[in-house]
Write a structure and sequence with these properties.
Number of domains: 1
Radius of gyration: 18 Å
Structural class: mainly alpha
Strand content: under 5%
Number of helices: 5
Order of helices and strands: HHHHH
Helix content: over 70%
Number of strands: 0
Largest sheet: none
Length: 167
């Protein structure tokens, strides 16, 4: 059902930034959920403040999941802009792989987090490893967007930041 489009829809842009800030929040404030899981595994009762913070972590993770599902639906329904003019086939291939990797990592993070939180499978170490992979993939994605916007001057970042668009 994907159609050819020249710009992201506002909902796609909002969901992108909700995901970005959600991931940053999760990375910055994950200590409490680790403390709760460690306490549970040791047969101890987690502190109330750790439990509250852990519930916030779980809630933000759920928001990220919903945002990613909505983004994928909108991408399927309305498409996404093609690569900027001047993008080589190799660059386009790397960008496509990176986007798929980011979506896959986001889903894998949520699934391993849910399985660990609900004591279905002890995947905390896998979740932590995926966290590092997501961090570096997101960092590379961000640097590529900045490079394309300000060095190649192809408008890539302006697609997700309308305030950078000219005219």
């Amino acid at each position: 059902m994907t159609t050819l489009t020249t710009a992201y829809r506002p909902a796609q842009i909002w969901l992108h930034w909700i995901t970005v800030f959600g991931v940053i929040f999760q990375i910055a404030f994950h200590d409490a959920i680790v403390a709760v899981i460690d306490a549970r595994q040791a047969g101890q009762t987690p502190t109330d403040s750790d439990m509250t913070s852990a519930m916030v972590h779980v809630s933000v993770g759920s928001i990220i999941l919903l945002a990613v599902i909505a983004r994928l639906y909108l991408r399927w329904r309305y498409g996404a802009p093609g690569h900027a003019a001047g993008t080589s086939a190799a660059q386009a291939m790397v960008a496509n792989i990176m986007h798929k990797a980011l979506y896959g990592l986001l889903f894998a993070m949520v699934v391993t987090g849910m399985l660990t939180w609900n004591d279905i499978a002890p995947l905390g170490d896998v979740h932590s490893g995926l966290n590092m992979a997501l961090f570096f993939a997101a960092l590379a994605h961000g640097f590529a967007a900045i490079f394309n916007q300000f060095v190649r001057k192809d408008g890539t970042l302006a697609r997700m930041m309308p305030m950078l668009r000219k005219g």
